[in-house]
Specification:
Blueprint: E1 4-7, H1 17-27, E2 33-38, H2 50-59, E3 64-69, H3 77-83, E4 87-91, H4 98-107, E5 111-116, E6 134-138, H5 153-167, E7 172-176, H6 181-190, E8 194-197, H7 199-202, H8 208-220
Parallel strand pairs: 1-8, 2-3, 3-4, 4-5, 5-6, 6-7, 7-8
Helix pairs in contact: 1-2, 2-3, 6-8
């Protein structure tokens, strides 16, 4: 099975965002683009809105996974879908009516994702596995890029992998936060199928394409197997 790579534009050079997105697509290694939307309430930072998603949509044909780190995200589903999102991922901690949220996202023709913060139990996912197209494990505290991977995330990934397998779910198991070549192999061995990476791609000393290739090589050729 091909491991999917999802560069996170939170680490991109915003002054040439369209150019960097096009670099990603030309490299031929990325499977989708990860867009972090932060509202300054659910997380202590502000980032992008629908207009940025629309600009990215015009710059690439890659699928856009829009990660809504915000309270009451349902207010903006229509706006992000209209801007070109292919998937909307919401946080279990921010959605008291999570089942309905996932139904609403799917009804709009998008893939529905559920994100889980580092301090949240995988058991919170149990009742929505039949509706989730994506499970996103946050391996750092959300809100800022460039953080270090939380080692205990590996066991959480394993647990969720077992839950998905037991439920017969085909959902992607995505990991976001501190994903670098040094941990990529361990994350994949634990059961992840999507690697979200920002700094490891956009801040690679040899450029975006080299960052993507190194990440893929270490994910599939982990010497510790």
């Amino acid at each position: 099975m091909r491991i999917k790579l999802a560069p996170s534009i939170l680490a991109a050079d915003f002054g040439r965002l369209a150019e960097q997105v096009q670099e990603i697509e030309r490299a031929g290694e990325a499977d989708q683009i990860h867009v972090d939307v932060m509202d300054g309430l659910f997380v202590p930072n502000l980032s992008f809105g629908p207009m940025i998603v629309a600009a990215i949509r015009q710059a690439t044909n890659l699928p856009l996974d829009v990660h809504l780190m915000m309270v009451d995200p349902s207010r903006y589903y229509d706006a992000f879908v209209a801007s070109g999102a292919n998937a909307l991922t919401v946080h279990v901690e921010a959605c008291p009516h999570l089942y309905r949220d996932l139904e609403e996202i799917r009804r709009r023709g998008c893939r529905a994702g559920v994100a889980l913060n580092p301090g949240s139990s995988p058991l919170l996912l149990d009742s929505v596995l039949d509706l989730a197209d994506i499970i996103l494990v946050m391996s750092v505290s959300p809100g800022f890029g460039g953080q270090q991977f939380i080692p205990s995330s590996v066991e959480k990934i394993r647990r969720i992998r077992r839950m998905l397998d037991d439920a017969g779910s085909p959902a992607d198991l995505s990991v976001d936060g501190g994903v670098t070549p040094s941990v990529a192999g361990e994350i994949v061995r634990a059961g992840a199928t999507v690697l979200v990476a920002g700094s490891a791609v956009f801040h690679h000393p040899k450029g975006v394409e080299a960052g993507l290739r190194e990440l893929r090589l270490t994910a599939v050729n982990d010497p510790r197997k």
